[in-house]
Amino acid sequence: MTNDATLIAQLQQENEQLRQRVAALENSQYMLQAVLDAIPAFIYCKDLDGTFLVVNQTYESSLGISREQIIGKNQADFFPSETVAEWRSIEQQVLETRAPVENENSMLLPDGMHTYLSIMSPIFDEHGQIHVLCGIATDITERKQMEEERLSLQQQVIDAQRDALRELSTPLIPIARDVVIMPLIGTIDSGRAQMVLETLLEGVAQYQADLAILDITGVAMVDTQVAQALMRAAQAVKLLGAQVIVTGIQPPIAQMLVHLGVDLEGIITYATLQAGIAQALAGRLTAD
């Protein structure tokens, strides 16, 4: 009897220890799931075939179904083939590198398209083989929208600054009913030459000008590019039925144009802006 009582007591003690271990394990699992559920991001574990093993509350809430309906099901049961194919590509990277892979992806949910910053990591078994893939995906949709708005606003500022610089670098001034003048200062590169042409044509059309004066007194250097820009401007203005006068051609610049072989035929030139304006106004008074 004594042996039987001892055996019974030993079994009871082992049962109690087992019960305590089971309770501790359940509590540990509960705490782990509670931690996962408290994190406002998608958290999941799935096997190498894409079958879900663990998901958190954020995941099930976003899909609009319970985790019991998700666990044991494949990712292909819930998401479009394009999304699954993208994930498969990332999973392959994880398997090949045996290291976490970070990426940004989009997902269509019941309330619309969302953008996520995701990290997928491998889980190894006791033999060092990958048998589970775990991931966490943070919703950055709002952040992306704010970034896009910031970039859009930044682009608007850049466009406004560019327009302001364009107006400053290529000012067009009407000095009479049908006469406009564009004083140029500084260096003229290909970009600015195009701006000169566009502004001049727009101004001639807007003011219905018969005469446009290009003053290059403030242009530091006249090279082939500047000369070609002047010729293109003159030819384009002629197509609108207007005439071009180029002023500010000093002797050194005249020699440079001759050296470059620039043909200014059909373009009226004057040494000073004052002379060009005087001639333009005189011609206008005569026409009136």
Summarize the structure.
The chain is an alpha/beta fold. 53% of the residues lie in helices and 25% in strands.
CATH class of the largest domain: Alpha Beta
Strand adjacency order, main sheet = 2-1-5-4-3
Q: Based on Cα principal axes, name the global outline.
A: rod-shaped
Let me know the number of strands.
10
Percent helix among the residues?
Answer: 40-55%
Counted up, domains total: 2
Return the average pLDDT rounded to an integer. Answer: 81
Q: How much β-strand is present in the residues?
A: 15-25%
Largest sheet: 5 strands, antiparallel
Molecular structure report:
By secondary structure, the protein is an alpha/beta fold. The protein has helices at residues 2-38, 57-63, 67-70, 81-97, 141-169, 190-207, 224-239, 251-260, 273-287, and strands at 42-47, 52-55, 101-109, 112-124, 130-139, 173-176, 179-186, 211-219, 243-247, 268-270. Helix 6 packs parallel to helix 7. It has a 5-stranded antiparallel sheet, sandwiched between helices. It has a 5-stranded mixed sheet with strand order 6-7-8-9-10, with helices on both faces. The longest helix is centred in the first third of the chain and has 37 residues, at 2-38. Strand 9 (243-247), helix 8 and strand 10 form a beta-alpha-beta unit. It folds into 2 domains: 16-144, PAS domain (Beta-Lactamase); 168-287, Transcription Regulator spoIIAA (2-Layer Sandwich).
